Amino acid sequence: MMNEGSRILAEMNDRSREVFRRVVEGYLDSGDPVGSRTLTRSMSEKVSAATIRNVMQDLEYLGLLDSPHVSAGRIPTQLGLRMFVDGLMEVSTVSAADRERIDATMGGNEPDVGSLLDRVGSALSGITRGASLVLAPKHEAPIRHIEFVSLAADRALVVLVFADGHVENRVFRPPAGQTPSSLREAANFLNALAEGRTLSELRSHMGREIALRRQELDGLAREMVESGMALWENEGGPYERLIVRGRSNLVGAAEAEELDRIRELFDDLERKRDIADFLELAEAGDGVRIFIGSENKLFSLSGSSLVVSPYMNADRKIIGAVGVIGPTRLNYGRIVPIVDYTAQLVGRLLSDRGKG
Which residue numbers delimit the Heat-inducible transcription repressor HrcA C-terminal domain (predicted)? Predict the structure, then answer.
C-alpha cells in the first residue's frame, strides 16, 4: 500500500523531483536554506531562477518545503525529510577509514562487555559527529547469589553473582534508616526468590512476592529490595544499560535557539528514560530505522533525528541496539550504513563470546 509521501513522489515530474532532492541535499550538507539562484547552477537542465521559485512554491504548498524567517531559500519540512529518506536518498557504503575505526574498537579480550560497548559508542559518535546511544544486553544467566553491603549512611553496594561466574557490583543510595538487619532481610528475601531465575525473571516474580508477603517483610527491607533491584532497570556506573557518548558534538553543532532543546534531550538521557521503549523501537523493525523529529516519542526529540539498529545474539534474538542521534540535518545516507555495520559487528562479537 502506497503511503502519502510515496504517492506525492510518484506524481511529481522530473523537474520537481530534482528541485526537491537538491534542496534537501543542500540543507543536509550545510544546514542552511537553499535558494533558487543556487539551484540554477546545479540543475541538470537549464532553467531560470523564476521557474525554480515556482516549483519551490508548489513544493511548499504540498508541505514538503518551508521558508524560514525572511530567507528567500527553502528547507525541507519533517514530511519532506521523511519522503526524501524513504524514496530518494542514496545510501553510501561504509568507507574504509570508518570501517577501520569501528573494527579497531572490537580488539581486546577483556571480559567486561560494558568496556567494549563504551568504546563502540565513542567511535560511533566520533565518526558521525553526533551523539551515540548503545543499549547493552542484560545478563541473562541464572542468579546464584545476591548481597547488600553498607558502605556509609547514604551509600550501599549490591552484589549479583551469576551461575556462569559473572559478577556485577553497583553502588547506590539506599532508603534512609537502613540497618544491618534490614540489609540481611532484603538479601535473604531476594536469594530465596532468585535461585535458578534470570534477572528479568526475578524482576517479574518479585513484585508478586512482595505483594503476597507484605506483612512479613519489614518496610525498610522492602524499600531496600525495590531500590536495589531498580538499578538493573536504570543507570548504574559502568554497568549502565544505555551508554551515551558524544554529547559535546550536539552542543557544538547547535544554533543558539536549539540549545534549550539539546539540554532537554540531555536531561532525558541522564534519567535513562524509556530504555524499554528504546529497545522495543529497535525490535519493531529489522535493520536500521530512522526517526525524524516528532516521529520519535523518546527523549523529547522534537527537533532531532535518531538512526537506530538492533543487534542480535547467535540465536537471532534481539539483545540490544546501537544508534546515532543528532539534528534533523544528519547525513542520513552516510550514517545509515555506519549504524548498520556497527550493529552487525557488535552482534557477531557478542555471539562469538557467548560460544567461548
Answer: 116-336
